[in-house]
Amino acid sequence: MKNKKISTSKICLCVFLIFVLVCIVLKPSVYMQATLQGVIVWANAVLPSLFPFFFLTTLLLELNALNSFSKVLKRPLKLFFNVSGDASFVYIMSIISGYPVGAKLIYELYKNNKINTFEAVRINAFTSNSGPAFILGTIGFSMLNNQYYGVIILLSHYLSAFINGFLYRNYGAKAKTTQSLTATTTNNMQDLLGNTIKQSVLSVLIVGGYIALSFMFCAFLTDTKIINVLCAPINFLLSLFNLPSAYTQSIILGLTEITRGCLDLSMFINTNTHLIIVLISGIIAFGGVSVALQSLTYLKQCKVSTKVYILQKFTQAILAIIISSFMVLII
């Protein structure tokens, strides 16, 4: 029975992929333009900001520069999140640089035998963050034309991540918290630099591939009108709270790729300011399919379950929505 289910799922996936290919062949300009837009976003915004962080953080970890971070934040991290001091470096870098740096650094700790799978899950709960440059610059200044709105989204985002980490502090608590305290280091500086650049380039290319793919998939949803079917359950939920359904398509696109969704929602900022800020806060906290695929590229190597990751992002999104809902009342 299990083999039949696997075969059926593979057949359905193949049929779906063939359908996508047919759509691309019939309207190549639509999908080429969408993919190009994703590549441009990656080249202009993601590559310049992400590559230096990938390179420098990986190099610092290879040089075993965690001791100073660990000593300072060891007790607070143990108290609030039940993790070792090594997570302090991941926490700080995830706040500064944003998705998916936190996931990559968790993988680096796991690879160097600093943490196990359970601790990787606990660390990810509060280090899966978007960066201030994206929230304050791209969202607040460029899209919403109001940096104060960006500050509200930023604060709700980091507060939700902090509370989220506390919620998962007992995940696998009875298991051994570390695999080994022995880290692998490279003595040859030339080899170290070469390997670090190679890893960083590969990582940033993977991120770019997922962004381009997400933009293409957004075009597929709108071109085939599948997005109209997906809108139905969200429209029903919005109707329960007497909320307008005009934002449904933007929400779905945001759950696929956060930049695209936030851009669409920003068009309604003057119509319903409070609701738009809350929705954007939730979308950024959840991260969307694109961020999930980027993060799981590293977390899967730490044996972190996809279901657990999605659950963590869901609870963080709910927390961000609740916090931002209270914060917008002071506008």
Oligomer: single chain
Overall pLDDT confidence: 86
Distance between the termini: 57 Å
**What fraction, in percent, of the residue positions are helical?**
over 70%
Question: What structural class do helix, strand and pairing data support?
Answer: mainly alpha
Runs with pLDDT <50, length 5+? 177-184
C-alpha geometry: globular
Radius of gyration: 21 Å
Query: Using DSSP, what is the number of strands?
Result: 0
Helical region count? 15
Q: Note the run of SSEs as H and E.
A: HHHHHHHHHHHHHHH
Biggest β-sheet description? none
Percent in strands? under 5%
Descriptive account of the structure:
This protein is mainly α and 331 residues long. The chain has a domain at 26-49 and 131-175 and 197-330. It is built from 15 helices and no strands. The radius of gyration is 21 Å and the shape is globular.
Helix/strand layout:
Layout: H1 2-26, H2 28-62, H3 67-81, H4 87-97, H5 101-111, H6 117-127, H7 132-143, H8 147-167, H9 189-223, H10 226-240, H11 248-256, H12 258-266, H13 273-286, H14 288-299, H15 306-327
Helix pairs in contact: 1-2, 2-5, 2-9, 4-5, 5-6, 5-14, 6-8, 7-8, 8-13, 8-15, 9-14, 11-12, 12-13, 13-15
Question: TL;DR?
Answer:
This protein is mostly helical and 331 residues long. It has 15 helices and no strands. The model is unreliable at 177-184 (pLDDT under 50).
List keywords for this structure.
331 residues
